[in-house]
Inverse folding.
């Protein structure tokens, strides 16, 4: 999964993430989850492996594109943001995984030049837009996503 782009769908928008941007990932069937509060897209997890606990955001709910629903086929991708803290992003199901070598550099669009973003979503949360098989895929930048939404 490392040298690939993970593509997933939220509402009618295609998003992507690079597993190399994250320190680790795990499926929800290996963790217990609970909400931090009723109106927050931030959730807590506990599990037997390191890290034993932490926070993650439900990506679709964070952007206001979907309700916070969870599937055992979903994954949490974790990024260490400080010595004592890791933040994660939950995505429900992958649509596909594409090897980076299949992605053509000329089909990348700078964030400032793209007009595919849903309203009210900060462009700073994304690295670039990749055009692939007639789809525009907005590729996440995890640290900028956490900063844009002030997730701690």
């Amino acid at each position: 999964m490392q040298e690939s782009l993970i593509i997933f769908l939220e509402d009618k928008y295609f998003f992507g993430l690079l597993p190399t941007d994250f320190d680790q990932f795990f499926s929800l069937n290996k963790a217990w989850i609970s909400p931090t509060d009723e109106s927050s897209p931030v959730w807590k997890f506990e599990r037997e492996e390191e890290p034993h606990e932490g926070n993650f955001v439900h990506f679709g709910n964070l952007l206001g594109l979907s309700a916070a629903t969870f599937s055992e086929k979903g994954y949490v991708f974790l990024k260490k943001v400080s010595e004592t803290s890791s933040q994660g992003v939950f995505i429900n199901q992958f649509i596909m995984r594409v090897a980076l070598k299949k992605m053509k550099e000329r089909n990348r669009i700078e964030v400032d030049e793209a007009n595919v973003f849903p309203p009210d979503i900060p462009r700073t949360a994304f690295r670039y837009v990749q055009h692939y098989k007639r789809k525009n895929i907005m590729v996440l930048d995890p640290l900028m996503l956490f900063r844009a939404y002030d997730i701690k």
In short: The chain has two helices and twelve strands. The two ends are 27 Å apart (CA to CA). The chain has a mean pLDDT of 89.
